[in-house]
Design a protein that fits this description.
By secondary structure, the chain is of the alpha/beta class. Helices cover about 35% and strands about 25% of the residues. It folds into two domains: about 260 residues, 3-Layer(aba) Sandwich (Aminopeptidase), CATH 3.40.630; about 110 residues, Alpha-Beta Plaits. An eight-stranded mixed beta sheet has the order 1-2-4-3-5-16-6-15, with helices on both faces. Strands 10-12-8-13 form a four-stranded antiparallel beta sheet, with helices on one face.
Length: about 375
């Protein structure tokens, strides 16, 4: 079964929705105008319930099917990124410093298309919960929605999400059972030394050489303390210190990211970082402090739900266009919190050639909106047949 004919008929309407959303991006939890646009469409479609203000600006809409049954959750993220857009498109961002550079405008559009179809046809049993989430790019909006009780409040049994991918063939799906995306943490190292004249380093406690040594030692964690059969990344991404050539500064600062899949690996990295920072601080006679911030957990797909979702994707795009065991990626996604709360699956949907995600020249490919909407709709009809 290819794209559903009824949803294909929405293609131009979906393009209009998506381009409106693209032109009016909002950040993190402040997605109130986006939520209002979503709610207005949902009311037009005639969904049965609309619940607003979850996780500040999130929305959950309920569509009832025919007869008793479970409740399947479908999630789309709504927030944009704090970056300028350089596409020059007619529908480019009208908000300085904000841009839909990750395709959340398209994800919201795909779920709206599925909502319209499901509210019209109701060819399923039980209920579907349409989850429009803020703050995926920062703030963990999915975790906040779970903490505010959406899974129990709406009786959600299973939950699914899609994300677009540039440079993957248009309409092709890929996913994997078990961990699919990494836990993402960040670290900060604050170094307090004793500055002075660059010509007389013996009179100082140099924070710069301490920072360089700590950054280098962090790179040995993966190469010397970690089992290479388990994926992990430690990257130092910022080093700040000093202001001129002949002054040894008082302070230095390091920042970076850690990506892991297993909690025991995460704990080992934290322990080694603490030891390295303390040891090098003493060695260089400076005060060095580690601040480690655990972020989104690993995104872990339920193997059975992956198999089910992949079969549905094959109905839409064909056997040749679905890969269901592609392995892990080091990116991160706060849908992890929803998958901790309920079994489900996270899939990627190819959108063809173009600028990559988080690129100022990126734009969502409107051709895949009917594909994603059809996938969501068929998930519901297949999981909960009349």
């Amino acid at each position: 079964m290819p794209v559903l004919n009824r949803i294909a008929a929405y293609a131009d309407e979906m393009k209009t929705w998506r381009r409106h959303l693209h032109a009016h991006p909002e950040l993190e939890f402040d997605c109130h105008k986006t939520a209002r646009f979503v709610v207005d469409r949902l009311r037009d479609f005639g969904v049965d319930e609309i619940h607003e203000g979850i996780a500040t600006s999130g929305v959950v809409a309920i569509v009832n099917g025919q007869g008793a049954g479970g409740t399947i959750g479908l999630r789309a993220d709504m927030d944009a990124l704090p970056m300028p857009e350089t596409t020059g498109l007619d529908h480019a961002s009208t908000v300085p410093g904000a841009m839909h550079a990750c395709g959340h405008d398209g994800h919201t559009t795909m779920l709206l298309g599925a909502a319209k179809y499901l509210a019209e046809t109701r060819n399923f049993s039980g209920r579907v919960a349409l989850i429009f989430q803020p703050a995926e790019e920062g703030g963990g909006g999915a975790g906040v929605m779970v903490e505010e009780g959406i899974m129990d409040r709406f009786g959600i049994d299973q939950v699914y999400a899609l994300h677009n991918v540039p440079e993957i063939e248009t309409g092709h799906f890929y996913t994997t059972p078990g961990p699919i995306m990494a836990a993402v943490d960040e670290f900060h190292v604050d170094i307090q030394g004793r500055g002075g004249h660059g010509a007389y380093p013996q009179e100082t406690a140099d924070p710069v050489v301490a920072a360089i040594a700590i950054a280098q030692a962090f790179q040995t964690i993966i190469s010397r303390n970690h089992d290479t059969r388990q994926e992990a990344v430690v990257s130092v991404t910022q080093v700040h210190s000093g202001s001129t050539d002949n002054v040894i500064p008082d302070t230095a600062y390091l920042n970076g990211t850690v990506r892991t899949f297993e909690p025991e690996v995460q704990d080992m990295i934290i322990r080694r970082m603490e030891q390295i920072v303390a040891g090098h601080g003493a060695s260089f006679d400076v005060s060095a402090t580690l601040r480690y911030e655990r972020g989104y957990p690993a995104t872990v797909n339920d193997p059975a739900k992956v198999g089910f979702a992949a079969d549905v994707a094959r109905e839409i795009s064909g056997d040749h266009a679905v890969q269901d065991n592609t392995g892990k990626e080091m990116g991160a996604e706060d849908f992890a919190y929803m998958l901790q709360a309920r079994p489900g699956a996270y899939l990627f949907l190819g959108q063809g050639p173009g600028a990559g995600l988080h690129n100022p020249n990126y734009d969502f490919n409107d051709e895949i909106s009917p594909v994603g909407a059809s996938f969501f709709a068929r998930l519901v009809e297949t999981a909960q047949p009349v």
